[in-house]
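Example record for the data management plan.
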Amino acid sequence: MNASKKKWALRAVLLLLIALLAVPLSASAASKIKLNKTKITINKGKSYRLKVSGTKRKVKWSSSKRSVAVVNSSGKVTAKKKGTAVITAKVGSKRYRCKVTVKQPVTSVKLNAKSKTLTKGSSCTLKATVRPTNANNRAVTWTSSNKKVATVTSKGKVKAVGKGTAVITAKAKDGSKKYAKCKITVKAKKTSSSSKTLLTLNKTKLTLQKGKTATLKATAPDGVRVTWGSSKPGVVSVSSTGKLTAKAAGSAVIAARRVDGKKTLFCTVTVQAKQSSTAAKPGSGTANAQKFLNILQKYSNQVKADREAGIKWGYSNSSSQAKSTWSAAYSASRSKGVTYCNCALLPRWALREMGVINSANFWGLAGGGIQFRSNVEEQLRKYCDIIRVYKTPNQLLAEGNLRPGDICTWVEYQHTNVYAGNGLWYDSGRGINYDSSEGAFTSFGPSAAINMSGTTVGYIIRFR
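Corresponding structural encoding:
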């Protein structure tokens, strides 16, 4: 073989070697491309940066569910709402995927009381309201700042163990750092003095309606006989056994006295005149409207008093939360520390208390109409007129066609409320009577909750 042929043979061998080496090198380079995460968990509203390493080629990013998580051109993933999505990084014909789980964190924790005073040895249960209701983890941990004063269980039961103050904290377990606190003041037990143990009386204040009776109980631990007397027998009389009879409106002081004169205790009794029935009567429009308004005012007064006591009346359209009758809502507020109402439910409570309607519902529709369920329209028409007006409150007042006790629906939005007179309304919508920071009503009115010139009454339900 001459030199020229040898030279070409050598070149051929070198080219073959280069070709053989090129295949594993290319495969090796491709195998080094990777995504820094194959799965991540982030909270709603938060972001995370995904990165592709091992290549300088352009990466195309996409999300399988943009309503849950979105990704921009640089791999920044932003969580939009609770759920799962797959983020894909495409490099050439290759795809690299990361599963993203979006969690809904807790946004607020509130307790049913901001402060409580207990006596040593007593207990109470705090209730935590965690929002939103779709948070992944709504559990809270309970802690006490001073366990020598007050302890707390995992269910919020606080026990007063020593005189002083302690702060009970309910903190969201999900890491959102949301919490609420209640200051507990513990007072020492009052020791009974020798004079107090000489006589006990079961009540110091009592209210009765005229014609009603009640019995007071007085006990002398040493068995000494007790005598009874009334400061005004014409208002309240008392028998030798402590039985009271309410005879006339007013107040009287009932005395329970040991016969040896060593101790006398007193109970103030207030007698109220017999109240007229709240039951509605067909054809008694003005009287029925006044009874209706009186009941709404009773509800509003209770909401105000409960707010001061740390009991919350919140807003809800859910039938599982908003009870169909006032008595059921009131009972829930006592047992749970929170209860719920809404705009159409408020007048329905009063109408049920008056016997006008049963459990069937009605409510105002967007556009000013009324939705009637079952035979509630027929029930209403026994006592009320249902009038189509489609005018502003100012127009109706000018015509003399807006009266206290009128139940109104509104054209501009799905809403129902009651005109109280003098430009004021009873309203349990999320308006002027609602404290959004607390998520609770301050009252049900009456208040100036409606723009008198810029809104339109669709229908009026009016006592006939």
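Summary line stored alongside the record: The chain has six helices and 38 strands.
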